[in-house]
Amino acid sequence: MALARTRRNDSGFNYWPGFVDALSTLVLSIVFLLSVFLVVQFFLSQEVTGKDKALEQLNAKLAQLSEMLSLEKLGKLNLDDQLSQLRAGLSSAEAERDRVKGLYDGLAGAGSDAAGRASELNKALDSEKQVTSRALAQIEVLNQQISALRRQLAALEEALEVSEKRDRESQGRIADLGQRLNVALAQRVQELSRYRSEFFGRLRAILGNRPDIRIVGDRFVFQSEVFFDTGQALLLPEGRAELDKLASALTELDKQIPAEIAWVLRVDGHTDVRPILNSPVFKSNWELSSARAISVVQYLVSLGVPAQRLVAAGFAEFQPLDTATTEEAYKRNRRIELKLTER
Fold first, then answer.
1. CATH code at position 260
2. Rounded-to-integer distance, Cα 128 and Cα 94, Å
3. Which residue has the higher pLDDT, 171 or 107?
């Protein structure tokens, strides 16, 4: 029987060595592919993790940059545009990262074409590096612009501080000048008041105590009948005699008052409330009151009183001393007033 078994083995074909070789080759191929897949998976994990950290740092830097930019007062619009571009670049980088992660996930189910996918992944990573480099370059440019803006802001603040200091000094000088001017004006008013008192006292002594001439406040009041007939603006002889006395006092006063005091004698014409009727010369009380004041001024000028020291004004019936509708009230309201005042 041993002889028969030996003969069968000698006569049959042995497949076992070839099968073992083929199986070994297949196992080695699978091991090699798995090794390649594991190596690629390791490097991809490291690369993706590094990119996530870089993107997180970039997001943090962008958030800090946004906060700094919000504090800047100048160049805000240009910086906002550049920041929008940078954020667009960041969005593009994030899109690339998502695409790389998709490639990485696809490698888990496609070990057979790992080499091709690894090449595509490297290209994607290179593209992401370029995007990241551009974003960092833009950040550097923005940092430089922020520094320039800060320098400009510091210069403006310094100039503003100098301007405010000058303004405070100017305000102090203006306040001092205003105070000095008020003092000077008060002195001028006091001097004019003193001369007015002297003038009124002298004029009272010259004119005497007449019932148709009286002092009301700071004015000498003459009844119109002293100078004019009813409805007329032509000076009467007795009115001229009174003005002669007034002119003498004024010329003496002009010599006494210092030239720097700008004084004038204002001659005011007033009428009663009754309208003018059937007058060929005057159509209203305005015209009558103004004409009477002008007649007084012209006569004083003819007596040597400086014209620049005289003012004529007409008030018609609108500044009454007595609002009653009696003949006595009408007579009081028809008047010529003399007031020594500043120009």
1. 3.30.1330.60
2. 9
3. 171
